[in-house]
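note to self: dont lose this again. the chain is below, predicted strucutre after it. 82 aa total, dont forget to put it in the shared folder this time
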Amino acid sequence: MAAMATPKDVAVWMMQQVRPDGARLFQPDAIEHILQMFGPNFLSKKPRGNSGISSTVLREFKKLHGGTVGYHRLHRFWEKLD
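---
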């Protein structure tokens, strides 16, 4: 686990996964990686009991990508937009 990680550290990792070469970041994979590498503090419990990425991490992620990354809700992944 990363020592003293911040929401921005997690968001930077997320940005590194979403590349112009078409790489997608699937939400379940991101959640698993965040849990293992950064810890549970960067996740949240959703109303249905499943885990999600915390709103603080997602806010930092949005700041970093500035609209260049889109989320596909149906398939639960992020990808670089053209």
